[in-house]
Specification:
0% strand; flat; 62% helix; 102 residues; mainly alpha; single chain
């Protein structure tokens, strides 16, 4: 009964078929010149170093919280380590391939 109970779709108007057959025009986007690779600066190195320090501190805090059975310290350490890890991943994603080999 399922296939036969559906109502029929009315035939489309021939004028509207001509409009439907032509694809819509997409805007043309001109390619810009490629960006020059970023040179590492002292500030970037300092931020990366600080992120690694916070990451390690968060892991140490989580381990000490687990060892001392302190839930709040463990959660704070894990939040700190996860946030610093996300910052490090963002820094790595934004860096150019030439910086990774250096």
């Amino acid at each position: 009964m399922g296939a036969y109970s559906a109502s029929r779709v009315p035939a489309a108007d021939p004028a509207s078929e001509d409009q439907a057959s032509t694809p819509p025009r997409e805007p043309v986007i001109e390619a810009s010149a490629p960006a020059e690779p970023q040179t590492p600066t002292g500030v970037a190195a300092l931020v990366k170093w600080a992120a690694w320090l916070f990451f390690a501190g968060g892991l140490v805090g989580a381990v000490l919280g687990i060892a001392g059975l302190h839930v709040e310290i463990t959660v704070a350490g894990l939040i700190l380590a996860c946030t610093a890890g996300l910052v490090l991943l963002k820094i790595r994603a934004d860096s150019s391939p030439a910086e990774e080999t250096a």
